[in-house]
Each structure stands twice: as structure tokens, then as C-alpha cells.
Amino acid sequence: MIYFYYGDEEFNISAEIRKLKSKLDKNFLEMSYREFDNPKFPDLMVAISTQPMMFGKMLIVINCEKYFKTSKKDSEAEGSFDDSQIKQIEKSLETVNENLDIVFRAYTPYDPKKKNTVDKRKKIFKVLSKYTSQEFNQIPAYKTAELETWIKNQAKLHDLKINPDAVSLLLLQVGSNLRMLDSELEKLKVFSKDKPATKEMVKEICVSNEDLFAFLDSVVSGAKAKALEQYGKLISTRYPLSILATLHSNLKDKIFLKANSSKYSQDEIAKMIGMHPYRVKLELQKLKQVPLKNLVKLKENLTDAEFKIKSGQSDLAPEREIEYAILR
Predict the structure, then answer these.
(1) Whether residue 218 sits in one domain with residue 320
(2) How far apart are CA 177 and CA 10, in angstroms?
(3) Tell me: the pLDDT tens digits for 214-263?
(4) How is 160-227 classified by DSSP, letter by letter?
């Protein structure tokens, strides 16, 4: 069969491919699964024409996001097919071996300048959309009901029962990133031991970065004395590199917000980084008096600290190296 999965939600696209991959014979997985990255026409034709061997079903995944680029520069890139090539692709797809599954995957991150994540005017889109096709787009952070439904459905896939108030708290604590939510559901499954996951369990074991966010806000605003006090509490319960990883992620969002606040609306920015529009508004208010160069400098200091810690070049303990990076 031919499948065409596209959109800006990578987790759901990957989940569909995992379902197909799980049906393959695990003893012959190396021979029954192949992946191609935006192959040019000759290589694409070879992939489509692959004949499965004697070990049953075969799955081929073709990453094809470049097939839908629209700029003039991209006219010579992979996937720019003329009419003759389109006809050959169309004909070959019609005669694919019944034991061969081909997935065309076009993961295209959200771009507020484009109405659609892929250019549906492309002839290759019309060819692929005739088959089993589905668009997977991110669920906006403000659509809490839709996200909570997703969490409940995903919990069922993990054979996990979860209380409604636990679902709401999980969404509040973790945010709208589906991959992170799925990871926390896996942790809850192990922790709950076949009992319904509760609000208390979510509080106890799931990601909660409120203290870290407050700490970073103090650092960014220049309240260093308060930041050092908060940091002392954090390192008593967290490993330094864990703190550093979360700081990197949150600081990256702050830099993006500051750099793009005049280019895009708050709703557009919210969708681009998976943040609730109201939180975007609050973050921008906090950053109003903070120069972008200060945020970039802090990010550079943290990156330098991480390199020294991981490479063994630091003369300080990890927690002190991070503290020094923050105070510099």
C-alpha cells in the first residue's frame, strides 16, 4: 500500500509509521525496512520499484518534504519533477508489489507566512494524495479540550487509566508538546502499577519546571541575589546538567520571542513554539526591558559551561560552573 503523511506534527506522523513498522518480521528487520531522504528522480524510481524478498512484508519510508518547496531556488533541488517524470512516478506507484508498503513522509514545521504546511498545488501532491493520505498538524496550546482528549486516547494506547484532574494537571505542567506528554504518560504507567493515575502522581513524578522558570526569570531580569537563592534550592533536588538542559530550552524560547515579537503576532508565535498565547503575552511583558544581546550572551555562557562540564575541562564542580556562567 501507499501512504502519504504530511503536516507539522512530527510525533503523530512518526507514530503512524511505528504502527506499520511493528507489523514487520523482527527477525528480518534490517532487510525489510529502508528509509530514503528526499531522493532525486532516479533513486526514487529505484525505491518505488523495490521487490520484497522471501521474508514477507517490506516497509520503505521516503522523507519528501523537499518535494513541496516553492521558491525558484528550489526548482533544481531534489523532488522537482517534470511532467514526464510525474507520469512515470504515477505509473510505478500503481504497480507497487502487494507485499511492499511505501510511506511518503513530509514533515514540514509550522511557518506563519504559509497558509499550508505543504504546497498542495504541486503535481506530486495530487499524485500522492490519491492514496491513503492524512495531514497531521500541531494542536494549538490554547485548544485545551482537544489536547486533553489526545492525552486520554494516548493513555489508552499505553493501557493507562488516568483521572480527569490528572489529565488537566499534566497538560498544565508539561505543555502541548505531544512527544513530552507521551513520555510522561509512559512514566505514569510504570509508577501507577495498573491503578488509575492521579493528580498527586502527576505532581510527584512528572516534569514541572515552575521553579526553574522562576529562577531563569530572576536571572534574566538581573535580580542576581534572588537568583542565587533560588539556585541553591534547585541544586538540592536536581542534577546540575538536568537544570542546564531545561535552562537551554527555556532560554531558546525567550530569545525567539524577543527576536520575533515585531515580526509575528502573538498567536503566530504561540503556534511556532507550542506555547499558549496568554503565556506568550506574559513572557513578552517580562522581556520588554531585557536587551536581546543579554539573552544571547547568557545562552553562550551556558553553552560554554556545558562544554566544559561534559568535556572534563572545568576546574569547578558542575553546579559551580553553571553558577559562574549565570553570574558572568
Answers:
(1) yes
(2) 10
(3) 888 888 888 888 888 888 888 877 778 878 887 888 888 899 999 988 88
(4) --B-HHHHHHHHHHH-S-HHHHHHHHHHHHHHHTTSPB-HHHHHHHS---HHHHHHHHHHHHT-HHHH
Q: What is the pLDDT of residues 70-100, one digit of tens each?
A: 654 544 444 578 899 999 999 999 988 888 9
User: What stretch of H or E contains 59?
Assistant: strand 58-63
Burial of 289 (0-12, 13-18, 19+ CB in 10 A): exposed
- If one counts the domains in the chain, the total is 3
User: Residue 61's CB: how many other CB atoms inside 10 A?
Assistant: 22
Expressed as residue numbers, the domain containing 236 is 210-327
Please give the model's pTM, rounded to 2 decimal places: 0.66
Considering the domain architecture, whether residues 292 and 314 belong to the same structural domain is answered as yes
Percent of all residues in the chain with a pLDDT value above 90, rounded to a whole number: 34
What CATH number is attached to the domain comprising 215? 1.20.272.10
